[in-house]
Amino acid sequence: MLKKIIIIMISTCIIATLVGCSQSTSGAKEQGVNSKTQNDQSKLKVVVSFNPLKEFAEAIGKDKIQVTTVVPEGVEPHDFDLTIKDMKNIGSADLFVYSGFGMEPWVDKTLTSIDNKDLMVVNSSKGITPLKNSAGEVQQEGQYDPHIWLSLKDAKIQTKNIKDALVKADKKNEKFYEKNYLDFSTQLDNLYNEYKTKFKGVQNKNFVTGHAAFGYMCRDFGLKQNSVESVFGGGEPTPQTLKQLVDLCKKDKIKVIFMEQLASPRVSETLAQSVGAKVQKIYTIESSEGNKTYLESMKENLSNIYSSLNQ
Ligand SMILES: [Zn+2]
Fold first, then answer.
1. Gyration radius of the chain's alpha carbons
2. What is the pLDDT of residue 139?
3. pLDDT for position 227
4. Do residues 78 and 11 lie in contact, with contact meaning Cβ atoms separated by under 8 Å?
5. For position 89, what pLDDT does the model report?
6. Residue 160 maps to which CATH number?
7. What is the span of the domain harbouring residue 117?
8. Which of 161, 190, 219 is the last residue of a domain?
9. Residues 147 and 265 in one domain
C-alpha cells in the first residue's frame, strides 16, 4: 500500500514537472525573480521556436520583452526534437510564437500537454497563403512548404501577427509596438520594392541552390529555385535530378550554385565543378549565421541572386 502511494506521489511529481502545472509554473516564476534584475521582471517572457522569429519579436518588443529560442544555435530546425526542458520553458512563457506550416511538427503535441491557461500562442503563419509541396515531397516534408520567413511579404505578415499578440498581451505599450512594427515593416517593404523592380528586368529567372528553402521568395519576385537536395533537410539527389540540374546549368549558363550552412555542401560542390560554376553562400536564416540580422541576410541573398542572374 505504502509502495503504491509513493509510486503515485512520484508519478504526480513527474507529470507536474513535465507539463508545468500552474503551481510549479508560478513557483518557477518566483524562483526566477531572485536571479533576475528588477528590470527583467517587468518584461514579457516570449518563447519562439527558431531564429527568424526571435528577430521579428525583438524588432517589435525591443526592451519590453525577453526572448528565448527553442531550437539552439547551429541546429537544423527540420531535424529538431523537443526536450522536457524546452517544454517547461514554453509552459512558463507569456507568449509562445511559432512559424507554422509544419516547420515545427512538435507544436500541437506540446501545446496539448502544457497546462498554462494564460499562455498566449501565436501561429505566425496566420493569413499567409501556403505553397503546396509536390506529391513526392508531401510524405517526407508534409503538405506545405514551411519556409515563409524567406519571403519579405510573408515576414511582414508574421511580424504583424507577433505585433498583434504583443498589443493584446500588453495593451499599455500599444503605441510602442505599433511604432516599431511600422519601422520594421517599412524596411521590409523598401527592400521588397527595390528587388521587385530589379528582378523585373532580368531575363533568366532560374537559380540553383542546395536546400529548397526559397519557394516563397521566388513567389515574391517571379523567380524559380532549382534545388540540389532531394529533401529540405538534406538528402542526395537522384542521378536523374543531378543530370537535369547539370543540363539546366548549361542551358541557362548558371555560374553560381548557392549553398546553405546547415545543408550538406558536397553535392553542391560536385555540381558546381561539373558545370564550371562557383559555390556561393546563401542564408536560410534557420539559425543565426555570421552575426547578421534578418535584413542583412536577406539583402545579401537578394543581391547575390540578382548578380548571379546577370552574369
Ligand atoms: Zn529549411
1. 22
2. 66
3. 86
4. no
5. 96
6. 3.40.50.1980
7. 15-32+40-124+131-190
8. 190
9. no
